[in-house]
Amino acid sequence: MLQFLDFFGTAVFAVSGALAAGRKRMDAFGVVVLGCVTAVGGGTVRDVLLGSQPVFWMQEPWYLGVAALAALATFAGEQAFVIPARALLYADALGLAVFAVALSVASVSAAVTASVVRRRVLRFMRLCPLRW
To answer: What DSSP character marks residue 1?
Structure first.
């Protein structure tokens, strides 16, 4: 379950990065690069700050594969369909929500109390640019 949420959140953030790249009229390579950087950037910074070596996507290259496929699919979708301007905002919000759920699942599986989980999720969601 946690692995699925992790991959899904990675894909959603790759879509977000690909949508941003598409707005700048980047080619397929630029869309994939920006999608991958967006998808794994936060976790990379986390691992570097925590001293986790190697970073997570080097240990499990599937994360880059998922991000690249999601970015390519988004690029193809942008070529075929008109994507609404708010899609980027929704992709960012969905990515944050998925990782908030993943944080909750990880905390519960680590036997952390419900009040601590609630505080962590609320603190995480305050970082979200949307007003709930």
So the answer is: -
Instruction: List the chain pLDDT tens, one digit each, 132 residues.
Output: 678 888 888 999 899 999 889 888 899 999 999 999 999 988 887 777 667 788 888 999 999 999 999 999 999 988 888 878 788 788 878 877 877 777 667 666 666 666 766 676 666 666 655 544
Under a CB-based contact definition with an 8 Å cutoff, are residues 14 and 118 in contact? no
Three-state SS at 108: helix
Residue identified by tokens 């603190």 is: 123
Hey, CA dihedral for 31, 96, 11, 61, is it positive or negative? positive
Q: Is the pTM of this model over 0.70?
A: yes
CB 47 within 8 A of CB 56: yes
CA separation (Å) from 91 to 52, 61, 81, 86? 28, 23, 17, 9
DSSP for 26-75, please give it.
--HHHHHHHHHHHHHHHHHHHHHHHT-SS-HHHH-THHHHHHHHHHHHHH
- The domain locations on the chain are 2-126
